[in-house]
Amino acid sequence: MSLESVLLIAFGGIVTGILGALFGIGGGIFLIPYLVLLLGVPMHQAIATSIVAVIATSSAAASVNVGRGFTNLRLGVLLETATTTGALLGGLTANVLSESVLSRLFGALLLFVAAVMVWSIRRPEEAATSTRSGDRGKLETSYYDPAIGEEIRYRVVRVPAGLGASFFAGGISGLLGVGGGIIKVPAMNLLCGVPIKAAAATSNFMIGVTALASVFIYYAHGHLNPLVTGAGVVGVLGGSLLGTYLSGKLHGKLIAGLFAVIMILVAVKMLLRP
Amino acid sequence: MQNHFIEKLVSRTLQVGVLASALLLVIGIVGLFLHPPSLTMISTTPNLSEFFTTVISSPSSYPLPVLLLNAGLLVLILTPFARIVIILFGFAAQNDWSYVAYSFIVLLIIIVSMSLDIG
């Protein structure tokens, strides 16, 4: 690998970090196809790079969200028992699967993410908070939402369903090097009654630890190239900061629609990879 | 120990961890451009135990930029680990033993995963 490639990886990291922050779905979903399809990085190495980048971006975002009180720490720790188990198994599975099988699985994930993006464009703005019964004691909590100037109180319901979705999200994270927020956030919101802001913050809080459960497996198999990963992490981290700044200035729905189309094209390319 | 205090501590730990690792990685990458070592040295990944043994026994065998790159990744990877430990002690200070148990399970899973690398 040449030092010029390092610059290309860092550049790709910046672009994917911006996109990840703009759409709130993490940089991995864009970084992996960039590394694999454009730079020819092996799939396992790209996944390992992405999983470390995911630790960086989620830790940075979680440090802000936890400080603001949006994160439900107890719910996060409880669901982490499932996400880390899933991630450990996902990481072990990824390392016995071939490059082409992983590419196809990633292509399928991209199609799913594109579908969720299209669905979220068409969906009316969510404003509801949970009022359902089924209190789980300490899982009832509140946070102050400065956007509406109100204290939002909610209780978590259907915890077993949340644990199941978290196990699945963790598995996808360990297997394909993504954060898994695309599964956890809707699950916490729709199944467990957690308001979307708290669900996104709690999901982000869990992502770093979830990724940690599989990163050592990639380390052990020698897939973690420090140069590729270091450049990718620095790029994605810088891009995420820039993307967070830009997110308030762009018309999200139009760009999300465009990117859903691009993601479908990239998904097809990943699915057809030998 | 109040929830608010744990939140502040967790937030600060994550912040410091990410900043420190980003700094190490940036210095490492810049160092590679200024004093490029043999690229084969960069492409081979030492696992955690190899990395620690080499650093402790003969740190000079690693070119400084490569050492910084690996150290940056290690700091980043250990940041969420530190977060689990802080939360575990935070719940213990609140006598919230069921959540101490959940945190301990998470810690155990991470240690099992870590042992796959070290072992």
Describe the overall structure:
The complex is a heterodimer of chains A (274) and B (119). Chain A is mainly alpha-helical and 274 residues long. Chain A has one domain (3-271). Chain A contains ten helices and two strands. In chain A, strands 1-2 form a two-stranded antiparallel ribbon. In chain A, a hairpin with a 4-residue loop joins strand 1 (141-145) and strand 2 (150-154). In chain A, helix 6 (159-176) runs antiparallel to helix 7 (181-191). Chain A starts with a helix and ends with a helix. Chain B has 119 residues and is mostly helical. Chain B has five helices and no strands. Chain B has helices spanning 3-34, 39-43, 48-57, 64-93, 97-118. In chain B, helix 1 (3-34) packs antiparallel against helix 4 and helix 4 runs antiparallel to helix 5 (97-118). Chain B is elongated, with a radius of gyration of 18 Å. The termini of chain B are far apart. At the A-B interface, helix 1, helix 3, helix 4, helix 8 and helix 9 of A face helix 1, helix 2, helix 4 and helix 5 of B.
Describe the structure concisely for a colleague.
The complex is a heterodimer of chains A (274) and B (119). Chain A is built from ten helices and two strands, in the order αααααββααααα.
Largest sheet of chain B: none
Major beta sheet summary of chain A: 2 strands, antiparallel
> Beta-sheet strand percentage of chain A?
under 5%
C-alpha geometry of chain B: elongated
Helix count of chain B?
A: 5
Q: Provide the domain count of chain A.
A: 1
Count, helices of chain A: 10
Question: Helix share of residues of chain B?
Answer: over 70%
Which spans of chain A have pLDDT < 50 for at least 5 consecutive residues? Answer: 127-136
What average pLDDT do the residues of chain A reach? 84
Question: In angstroms, what separates the terminal alpha carbons of chain A?
Answer: 23 Å
The overall average pLDDT of chain B, rounded, is 83
Assembly form of the protein: heterodimer
Based on CA atoms alone, the radius of gyration of chain A comes out at 18 Å
Main structural class of chain B: mainly alpha
What's the total count of β strands of chain B? 0
In the predicted model, the low-confidence regions of chain B spanning at least 5 consecutive residues are none
Q: Gap between N and C termini of chain B, in Å?
A: 37 Å
